[in-house]
Amino acid sequence: MSVHRTSVALVAAAGALLALGPVIPNWAVSLVNVSLGIGVVVLGMMVLMRTGLVSFGHGLYYCLGAYAAGLASNRFGAPDMLAMVAGGALAALLVSAVLGLLLAKYREIFFAMLSLAFSMILYGLLVKSADLGSTDGFNVHAKSIAGFAVEGDAHRLGVYSVIVITAALCALLLDAYLRSHRGRLAEAIRDNELRVEYMGASVFATVHLNYVISAVLAGVGGALMAIHIGHIDPEMTYWPQSGEFVFIGILSGTGSVFAPLLGSVVFETVRSYAYEKSPDTWQMVLGVTMLMVIVFLPGGLWSLASRLRGRPDSARTGG
Amino acid sequence: MAVILDARGLEKRFGAVTAASNINVSVEQGAIVGLIGSNGAGKTTFLNMVTGYLRPDAGSILFDGRDITGQKPRRITQQGICRSFQIPQLYNSMSVAENLMVGVGIVASGGRGWAASNALDGTPEQAVSRMLEQFGLAGLRHRQAGLLPEGTRKLLDIAMAMVVRPRVLLLDEPTSGVSADEKFALMDMVMAAVRAMQVTVLFVEHDMEVVERYVQRILAFYEGRIIADGPPAEVLRDVEVRRFVIGEQDPPAGDRHA
Question: Is A65 inside any structural domain?
């Protein structure tokens, strides 16, 4: 039942956004692009949070994804949006599969800090790499979609469409995974690792898999942002960026794959307005927003949706 | 009856403490065996060695003829030995049905390591519903596990061990923390399920009333050794058992060692 509903809602939402693409103003296109690009990364945070883990270093994969996309387009002669997204996903997959072997053994603050350490190592490497533009990074220009060249207005609409479709696809796939038997182990592990082992499943293998999934999503998000912004730099793996993903993750809640996407829209909207209305104190506005969510909606913004539907906040289904 | 579990010469030391010394136990398929002994006698150590939580220093454990000594708990579960816990190990944020669904899901997504005997009968949802019925938990299926009373938590903990369809079930003090008027109801429920699924049971228990009522055979532990092994009537009359396990100072004259 639920699978059906979430999938239908995702497809409908993506369809509506695609239909609106040509008619909405530039600022709205930009808001959707940024929100969904970051939202895909936060989908990855959600997988980790369901497993009971918080990473303060997901900027690592966000940045890797962006650089892989940038290199695919500028160095490897593949300035195609789909190739760039695939490159971002692949880079994150390869690196996380290796780092995950170590990280999947750690929990809580140790996991968080170790992730942070790895992200700062990448930062250090990129800053020292003159060939990759050092602290300035470099410009990226995606020229085609699946081989079809796009320019001008078509380019703007093309970027928007690729981001909307990719985000919806990521959410659909993640939703299917989280509802599978394997996916549901995430919360079981968060609750009681010992019992999971005594029920015959490998905690390590599941944590490793979820880590890789979350990294790939961050890599895809990074590639999408590289395509949207047209520029990448090492700040993408600097710690405040990773902190922002955690911030949006907590703000959103983990109740549904919609949560990170909508939470990201709320975050970007609040940030844009706050920045416009009070350029000197916009962080304070975000801080107060977060404080209110933690006090009044400890399950994140998504728990508001569950409450309105008169159901207890639930990140689960089945049974 | 065929021997399903065979422990030979198990030894386990923790520093200067001997937790298991030359433990030899053969359990026949379908048997209900009680493990008794005072705290620190080695009952739980034995359980922990069989389920892979502890690796014995010496000796071997055969399950259905296969050596499972020192394998990981996960592997041992997959082959058909499952356990419950003295302190229930539940998924507290989930509902009762979801707690069972995790186990059913693990079996359903199976894989190489799983024994054929674990295979589910029907859909995952049916498997969960059957187990809920079997343990009298059907009315509580949507209740959050973390908010259940202790007796129900115990029951769910045992149901979670049964839901992966083991051939041998190890229960660690199933009635501890359960009120006196609930303990027989709980054990009746568990034993009915065990019989229905033809599971061999070993259970650690301090309550002699419970032991006498449900087991066909008792293993009495003392200081890491098995000091008596036999039918309840015989073991509970044994002088050493009465002195070291039950705690009588002066056993009645005329009783012999079993």
Answer: yes
